[in-house]
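User: Can you recover a sequence for this backbone? Please restate the input before giving your answer.

Assistant: Of course. Working from this structure:
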């Protein structure tokens, strides 16, 4: 009897996806809410042919050396900066992602962060829960969104999803990206392309929608913050290390920056050796100028199920000798 291929899954997924894989594979799961220690993942994967990974995981050459049977690493994610894809390629291991399912829910959350920060909703919630609210009074005034300028840095899938959803907000929308939108898109979404410097100078709100690559690491730093419109706001739903959190805290303290909202944090970016080990305390304890969510971008029940299902499909395609639909590093000829 031919043994089933072993598949290791590092984090919780829906039971139906496990059942889908179990039809043809031996599936080793982690159905807890916790991230396994690296050593435990390696122990489980040392004789596995496939591995499904998630945002908290980090794969490097040392990991791959300890798991020589791997044929495919399937990311249940889109951003893959925590994974050494080049090392996978050298070992002829497919690395796959899920490119099309995360933009819409992340854009939804981004709008929530935008409104929450711009309308001081967190402060209002704290006021109610403190027992001090006795009825209406003129307080917690904000800049609002109407007719304000919002700049989107990066016009990939997330930037486009966000622009489409912001059309009805009656804001002045601008974006910066090396590749311009089509004339049709710019017209339909009422958005104009500007330089990064112009976006910094004129935006009341700036949304970051870029991948974490060498050119975007600490894109928002002390220098770029100094060129921003005073008392403007930044919303970051993409990757924590696109900003320098300490510089953000200093800009808020000086009054240059009006506020910062984020769903992502520098401490999550495992591939960066000098990353901080925790969220900047000054930001975390500032209930007046910050608004945070715990990496909820794609945390929608149906979406997370579909993401895991697509990652599982990529695994089964590789194990059956096919080219995976989400493969980013090999071709059918080089695998």
């Amino acid at each position: 009897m031919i043994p089933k291929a072993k598949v290791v899954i590092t984090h919780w997924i829906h039971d139906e996806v496990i059942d889908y894989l179990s039809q043809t594979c031996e599936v080793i799961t982690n159905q807890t809410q916790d991230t396994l220690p690296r050593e435990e993942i390696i122990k489980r994967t040392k004789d596995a042919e496939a591995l499904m990974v998630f945002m908290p995981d980090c794969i490097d050459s040392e990991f791959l050396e300890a798991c020589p049977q791997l044929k495919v690493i399937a990311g249940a994610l889109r951003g893959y900066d925590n994974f050494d894809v080049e090392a996978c390629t050298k070992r002829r291991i497919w690395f796959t992602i899920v490119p099309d399912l995360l933009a819409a829910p992340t854009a939804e959350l981004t709008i929530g962060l935008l409104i929450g920060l711009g309308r001081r909703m967190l402060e209002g919630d704290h006021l109610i829960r403190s027992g001090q609210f006795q009825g209406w009074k003129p307080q917690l005034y904000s800049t609002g969104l109407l007719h304000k300028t919002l700049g989107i840095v990066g016009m990939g899938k997330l930037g486009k999803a966000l622009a489409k959803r912001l059309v009805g907000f009656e804001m002045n929308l601008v974006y910066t990206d090396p590749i311009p939108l089509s004339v049709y898109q710019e017209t339909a979404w009422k958005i104009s392309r500007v330089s990064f410097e112009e976006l910094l100078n004129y935006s009341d709100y700036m949304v970051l929608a870029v991948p974490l690559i060498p050119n975007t690491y600490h894109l928002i730093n002390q220098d770029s913050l100094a060129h921003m419109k005073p008392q403007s706001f930044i919303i970051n739903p993409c990757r924590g290390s696109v900003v320098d959190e300490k510089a953000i805290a200093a800009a808020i303290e000086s009054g240059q920056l009006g506020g910062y909202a984020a769903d992502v944090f520098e401490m999550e970016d495992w591939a960066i050796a000098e990353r901080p080990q925790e969220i900047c305390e000054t930001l975390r304890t500032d209930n007046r100028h910050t608004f945070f969510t715990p990496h909820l971008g794609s945390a929608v029940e149906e979406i997370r199920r579909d993401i895991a299902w697509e990652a599982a499909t990529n695994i089964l395609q590789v194990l059956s000798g096919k080219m995976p639909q989400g493969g980013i590093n090999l071709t059918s000829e080089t695998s």
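That completes the design. The chain is about 35% helix and 15% strand.
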